[in-house]
Amino acid sequence: MRDHTPDFKMHELTAQNKTLIRQTVQQLLEKLATDGKLTSDTLLEFWVEVPAIKRSRGTFPGGFLMPDSFVYISDYFQPDAPDSLIPGEAYADGEVTLDKVWDDLLDELYYQVEIFTSPVSSGKGITLELWAGNRQRPEGEWIYAVDRKVELG
Question: Where are the alpha helices (DSSP H) in the chain?
Answer without folding.
Answer: 15-34, 98-117
